[in-house]
Design brief:
Largest sheet: none
Number of strands: 0
Helix content: 40-55%
Radius of gyration: 12 Å
């Protein structure tokens, strides 16, 4: 299970929120979608 990023780490939270907009990250996430069910946990609706 994922723990939320603490508010004290504001820069990290901002960076994490921007990650999906990077083309290379979006490609990696999209390419992994067919295998998502093999890795329980996480948040498939957000990744």
């Amino acid at each position: 299970m994922h723990a939320p990023i603490p508010d004290a780490l504001g820069r990290l939270k901002t960076y994490r929120a921007r990650l999906p907009a990077y083309p290379s990250v979006a490609r990696a996430v999209d390419g992994a979608r067919p295998y998502r069910n093999l890795f329980p946990g996480g948040a498939p609706d957000r990744d």
